[in-house]
Write a structure and sequence with these properties.
Layout lengths: L2 H31 L5 H14 L3 H8 L6 H9 L8 H14 L6 H19 L2 H4 L1 H22 L4 H27 L18 H10 L3 H8 L5 H9 L8 H15 L5 H15 L3 H7 L1 H24 L4
Helix pairs in contact: 1-2, 1-4, 1-5, 1-8, 1-9, 1-10, 2-9, 5-6, 6-8, 9-13, 9-16, 13-14, 14-16
């Protein structure tokens, strides 16, 4: 297939997934900000969100150094069209990529994507977001779920489908790692598993909010049937391949789809993806925590970004 077609499909799915994950990160921060806590702890949460998302410089350029308030951060990450990671920017980019390859999409998938954009505009103009941010974030997640379901249910499972899926799970692995880093970063610790030293404000409600942000609260209860601990939250979201939004599950999907579309130039990319998958498949949470969770997640993000660059070089950048 044409590399530009693959490129549009790859990035369409990445932008849809990025919008959903931005909504998930904002939602967990918004929900935890409603819990009883000191102003300093709440502030750390919003700062961490901008820092881990690599948006702090752009935010400060617009709002100044002392303007990190919930309202400003929410506006910046939801409706600011000049912020390429905002929900508005992501869903607009997803629609533009979809329109560029309209012929490669099923009618159902195109109409769903177009409808999402039109409804988003109505929601923001109708003040739905201001009235209930939580409800708006649920809507964004639902539209992303709908997009994946329509794609799986209607698309021919050819190369176009596999590039669509590859983009989805590469983006998901990146964003799950960032979400984990946001919340563990907020406890002022690289986190080596010393749960007894954690800030006492980060109790059951905070860790359960993190799990709910990846639709993992009920999964956690089924798997562990015990009290929620930071170590087990990290294990579930990193190493459990049967947890749909975990790093391990995402890398499995990336490798499987990459293997289907492999060409003569992609052997090294497939090898690196397979190596990262194997490290997650055979990893242990105590070994990860021994080196520090932040250090592990930072390295993971670097390797996932490199994979994205290599996929672009191997498949998506037109020759010459």
């Amino acid at each position: 297939m044409l590399s530009r077609t693959a490129d549009h499909l790859f990035w369409m799915s990445r932008y849809i997934e990025r919008a959903e994950n931005t909504a998930r990160m904002l939602d967990v921060n918004y929900q935890t900000s409603l819990l009883p806590q000191s102003a300093a702890v709440a502030q750390v949460g919003w700062e961490g969100l901008l820092t881990i998302s690599e948006l702090m410089p752009a935010f400060r350029a617009k709002y100044g150094d002392n303007a990190i308030t919930p309202r400003n951060v929410l506006d910046f990450m939801v409706r600011d069209e000049n912020n390429p990671s905002s929900i508005v920017a992501c869903l607009r980019a997803a629609r533009e990529n979809a329109r560029a390859v309209r012929g490669a999409l099923t009618t159902e998938l195109w109409e769903m994507q177009n409808q999402t954009w039109l409804e988003l505009t109505r929601q923001l103009h109708g003040k739905t977001f201001e009235r209930d941010p939580g409800q708006f974030f649920e809507w964004v997640k639902f539209r992303s779920h709908l997009s994946r379901g329509v794609a799986i249910g209607t698309m021919l499972q050819d190369e176009a489908f596999h590039f669509y899926r590859m983009g989805t799970f590469l983006e998901r692995s990146d964003n799950t790692a960032r979400l984990l880093d946001v919340k563990f970063h907020a406890i002022h610790s690289d986190f080596f598993g010393a749960a007894s030293e954690l800030d006492q404000e980060y109790d059951f409600y905070h860790w359960s909010a993190i799990l709910r942000s990846v639709s993992g609260f009920e999964v956690y209860r089924k798997v562990y049937r015990d009290v929620i601990t930071p170590e087990r939250v990290a294990e579930l979201m990193i190493l459990r391949a049967d947890m749909p939004r975990s790093l391990a599950a995402s890398l499995n999907e990336v490798v499987n789809n990459l293997a289907v579309v492999a060409n003569d130039h992609s052997n090294e990319t497939l090898r690196r993806a397979g190596k990262l998958k194997a490290e997650l498949q055979y990893g242990r949470i105590d070994e990860i925590l021994a080196t520090g969770l932040h250090a592990f997640l930072t390295q993971f993000l670097d390797r996932v970004n490199e994979l994205g660059w290599r996929i672009s070089q191997d498949f998506l950048v037109p020759a010459g």
